[in-house]
Amino acid sequence: MPEKMPEKVPEKMDEKVADAYMPKMAQLEDGSFAPAAPTNAQGTGVDRALLLDLALKTAYVLPQFSTEQAAKRLHLPQVLVAELLEQLRTDMMLEALGQDQAIGYRYAISQRGRERAQRLFEISGYVGPAPVSLESYRAMFEWLASQSSDITQAQVKQALSGLVLTDETIEVAGMAVSSGRSLFLSGPPGNGKTTLGHCLHDVMQGYIWIPHCIAVEQNIIRLYDTHCHQAAAPVTAKAHMTDQRWVRIKRPFIVAGGEMTLESMDMAYLPSLRYYEAPLHMKANGGTFMIDDFGRQHVDPAALLNRWIIPLEHRIDFLTLYGGQKIQVPFLLMLIIATNLAPKDVTDPAFLRRIGYRIRIDAPTQEGYAKIFTAYAARYNLKVEPAFIARLLERYRSTGRELRSCEPRDLIERMKDICQYRQQPPAINDELLNVAWAGYFGEEKTAAA
Fold first, then answer.
1. Spatial distance between the Cα atoms of 44 and 116, rounded to a whole number of angstroms
2. Top-confidence residue, 224 or 301
3. Strands 326-330 and 275-277: what pairing?
4. Beta bridge partners of 320
């Protein structure tokens, strides 16, 4: 990213440019839309030479293969792949072993093709689904942003109904997710900042389409990641109409913590494979990116905050390729930053002005703790007597422990563990709490109050 903001930062693609690169959309039987399958090499939006090189590298890793097998690996229509393979055969890169189907043959790579493929692997080791262009990716996300439905107050209240929060907190959180602006969460640890982030993400409805990978000239950027993305159930009806280079996923929720560095927020070049891995916040586009434990990273918080100035203001980001080339990608996500440190120690006024909303989540009151404990117990059909809660709260007071919102869940789960170990029905009582308390806090067991 540039050290200082460019004099003029384009926030969106020009409308005519976006229309030119926007994938054609096909309507599915469920009423949703999907990128339509390209009918020829030009319709893929990427250079034909790149597709030929990728097809040849695919042939290199297979002893022999059919047109259908190559199409499945390249995620391209079989008719288009048949055309590419025939071109490679004409160029003596492949040898035809015989006809396999009406529009396909069985092939093996020739010695000439093998030598060419080895040179290609020295440039890029990527083998897999064919890429889409960076311009198509940008156009798709701008279209998705324009299609997003409004988030209502009722939806937010429903999503947060399992949390014990003040009305003001619910209102501010709702405005943050509804507007798509960023959210800064602060407060002592263990009181639900991460849980609130998860619940707000759940308000986001529907699915989005992302490409397996993106081409920038001859560079390949891998975007789809099974560790970060959850593919939606495949649309079997009219599947042949859809562009298989795109994956329909649930809106991603990605969390980064103390391991974050400035380098991890840029393209990761993999020297052994010779292609790029997209950074986490790029993989979070269309969903939520949460920076947890902010201020605990091995980098100055001010440097991390400065990294987000352009994305927060302009909804785009600049990433750098290995050779120094900068590319512009969309930053269309909800950014949540959570810290248990004092905001004044990890932020500055210039950054806070760019944050959409701020919420402080403090330790629960005794009444709030009791509600959390009772509600979590009810999930397992376990009844909690008021007298038990009173004794538990007294135990906190007498040991000088501060109440935390996560501890009702943790203590109940440990009581369940004890019951499972003893092969007895789940229960909540003083004796089980005594054992759970000792195992959780590391204190010696004491007689029940």
1. 23
2. 224
3. unpaired
4. 326
The answer to whether the CB of 342 falls within 8 A of the CB of 190 is no
The DSSP secondary-structure symbol of 258 reads T
Across 116-143, average pLDDT: 94
Q: Which helix (H) or strand (E) holds 435?
A: helix 430-441
Please state whether the predicted TM-score (pTM) of the whole model is above 0.90. no
Sequence-separated contacts (24+) of 36-40 with Cβ below 8 Å = 36/241, 36/242, 36/243, 37/77, 37/240, 37/241, 37/242, 37/243, 37/244, 38/76, 38/77, 38/80, 38/243, 39/77, 39/79, 39/80, 40/80, 40/83
Can you give the pLDDT at residue 4? 43
Reported as a pLDDT band with limits 50, 70 and 90, residue 445 is: low
- What ranges do the domains of the chain cover? 47-123, 132-360, 366-441
Is there a contact between 291 and 256 (Cβ–Cβ < 8 Å)?
Answer: yes
Q: Cβ neighbours of residue 384 under 8 Å, at least 6 residues apart?
A: 373, 374, 377, 428
Q: Which CATH class is domain 47-123?
A: mainly alpha
Amino acid at site 114: R
Please give the single-letter amino acid code of residue 263. Answer: E
pLDDT tens sequence across 303-345: 888 888 888 888 999 999 988 899 999 999 999 999 988 888 8
Q: Tell how far CA 344 is from the center of its chain.
A: 29
What is the pLDDT at residue 238? 60
State the first-to-last Cα distance of the chain, in angstroms, to the nearest integer. Answer: 60
* Secondary structure of residue 94 in the 3-state scheme: strand
Q: Determine whether domain 132-360 maps to CATH 1.10.10.350.
A: no
User: What average pLDDT is seen over the chain?
Assistant: 88
Q: What angle do CA 311, 317, 322 make, to 5 degrees?
A: 145
If phi > 0 it is left, if psi is from -120 to 50 it is alpha, else beta; for residue 182 that is beta
User: Mean per-residue pLDDT for 272-281?
Assistant: 92
